[in-house]
Amino acid sequence: MAEIIRMPRLSDTMEEGNIVSWLKKEGDSVKPGDILAEVETDKATMELESYHAGSLIYIGVKSGPVPVDGIIAIIGQPGEDVTAILQQEGTKSPQPAAVPAAPAAEVPEAPVTPAPVQPAPAPVITVAAAQVSDQRLKASPLAKSLASEAGVSLDALRGSGDNGRIVKKDVEAYLSNPVAAPASDTTIATPVLPDFQYGDVPVSQMRKTIARRLGESKFSAPHFYLTIEINMDNAVEARSAVNAVSPVKISFNDMVIRACAAALRKHPAINSSWLGDKITYHKDIHIGVAVAVEDGLLVPVIRHADGKSLSAINTEVKELATKAKTKKLQPQEMTGNTFTISNLGMFDIDEFTAIINPPDACILAVGSIAQKPVVKNNQIVVGHVMKVTLSCDHRVVDGATGAQFLQTLKNMLQNPLLMLA
Question: Which of 181, 233, 265, 399 has the smallest set of CB atoms within 10 Å of its CB?
């Protein structure tokens, strides 16, 4: 019996998936565990695995976006009537794949003055692409991405896929045991940033979701912002003391996460969500930590953060951030946040305002720690100062509530021992 393969919902915010490439073609035999295609979601690029045995008798979409639950393929026996199966599902019979036509040029309704046009660059990139097109076909997009992140040349890898194609597991095998990989003149390559792509670039699924969700948040949730300045002198001393004896070297971001978790326990109204017809006050504290990746932003979640030590938080943040940057983050690892932290301090940003990550009621924007004049014991001295800004959804949180949370957070960071209480 034929099995219909539909576009799975690979994340809680996913509305459509983008078919990047097929690793099997129509007529190929497949078995459970075979990778059929690579699908770009709003969070990452994932491999679509087959759970059925048979032949791939129909591919519905060669490449491009497909809505969740849309039919993308059929696995069955050679010779089965695909048209009848699709008609039974209420889908049009398969049509030969066509190369998308270039969009027609739009004609302006009225004459306009054209903007200055830069001279077109010499077609060096086109020629190079033509020369290496055969090589590019031998590695899947996900494998290329993982190899680029790790600074590994594809020349150092041997593909185990069809026709020697390099796939995800080949890169992972090399990274786990690079000595065992076949020798090559360029076994280890210095990481090279890809050429920046100028001109029109198709919007990725991740960027579409960022635009939709944060657009809805910014223009539907009435934001207001509260900024407070925190003296981090004691936090600097405490971190130095801990890192002098601990095998796990904690960061200031770890301290902010731990302090936020403790403050949220004292101010549960901040640990809440607006759900339209109700407000949910969460008993558990799950803190999302914004991580910048190539295509945008991912928010892995530290669950039950109030019950974890600084070293445990550090280890988990590093592990999840690495997964996010290598596109290995699983959907369950980036859902369920009740509060979010976005830290740009490492980029010397003094302060900024962040857009609330729905359905959270608040997000904390963390700036850099800078040495500035401060008053201590009626004397002006040099101190370590950090500014944080709390963005609040006024439908859920009032100004006084947000201010009280920030006062508690400030007190904990200025007196780090309070985080342990």
Answer: 399
